[in-house]
Write a structure and sequence with these properties.
By secondary structure, the protein is mostly helical. It is 59% helix and 11% strand. The chain has a 3-stranded antiparallel β-sheet with strand order 2-1-3, with helices on one face.
Length: 161
């Protein structure tokens, strides 16, 4: 579906960008014009544009890229100065790894994995049966700890990576 509509919306985007790049416009006028053009797109075209923009900015399914202009770690390290070595070493993105589980609670663990991964029943079952396996990648510490607590309550052994 994306491939079918992408050329039309991309060509429209590039024609919009050429139109918007006049030297006489102020920054505010240019941004307002871009916002108006984006809002005039259909929902499908806006979705295609959002996918393209995320791709160009280095984002993926799991959140912002680890390195790059917009990442919090690079911005904090650049502005903090020489005393930022301790902060740079602190991990901000975590993976939740399911090490093992009690066979009696397998179904409950599959249901819980489905809840936080948006996988189907078969995919979640296959994932849980591959222990040790990473069940969730690229999440914050708070989210990782809540997932760990839920899985540990069900009798699973879970670690953060």
């Amino acid at each position: 579906m994306l491939a079918r509509t992408a050329p039309k919306s991309l060509s429209r985007f590039f024609s919009i960008s050429r139109y918007l790049s006049t030297a006489t416009e102020t920054q505010t006028q240019k941004l307002e014009r871009i916002a108006d053009e984006i809002l005039s797109l259909t929902k499908l075209e806006r979705n295609d544009y959002a996918v393209l923009l995320r791709y160009k900015m280095g984002f993926n399914n799991y959140g912002p890229a680890v390195t790059g202009i917009g990442s919090p770690s690079s911005a904090g390290a650049a502005s903090a100065g020489p005393g930022s070595d301790a902060k740079a070493a602190e991990k901000v993105v975590f993976d939740v790894k399911l090490e093992k589980y009690d066979a009696a609670t397998k179904i409950k663990i599959i249901k819980e994995v489905r809840a936080f991964t948006d996988l189907g029943l078969k995919e979640a079952k296959d994932l849980v049966e591959k222990v040790p396996v990473v069940v969730k990648k690229g999440i914050t510490k708070d989210d990782a700890e809540s997932i760990m607590a839920k899985l540990k309550d069900l009798g699973a052994t879970v670690v953060l990576e």
